[in-house]
Amino acid sequence: LMFYKEASSHAYSDLSELVSTQECVELSHSSGMKWPNFMKWMEANGGAEAVAARYDYVWVVDDDVRLDTAEINRLFSILRDHREVEFAGPSF
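The structure corresponding to this sequence follows.
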């Protein structure tokens, strides 16, 4: 997770607590906008090729998107069933 708002906020504190219970989730903080932060995260993780080799999918989502676990799982299930799709996101 890349958190870009105030690190002193309750939301960041709550996320830190949640992430500490999850072995495959990491939390980073960086001020700024979503796409520059995504690029910063990608570079910190070895660049685009290294990220593509490590992950099947990378989900970049706005902080106001509300999806429950079943909906998120469905998104990735659809992607697994349609390998020809290279870029996808939820719509409303």
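The two ends are 22 Å apart (CA to CA).
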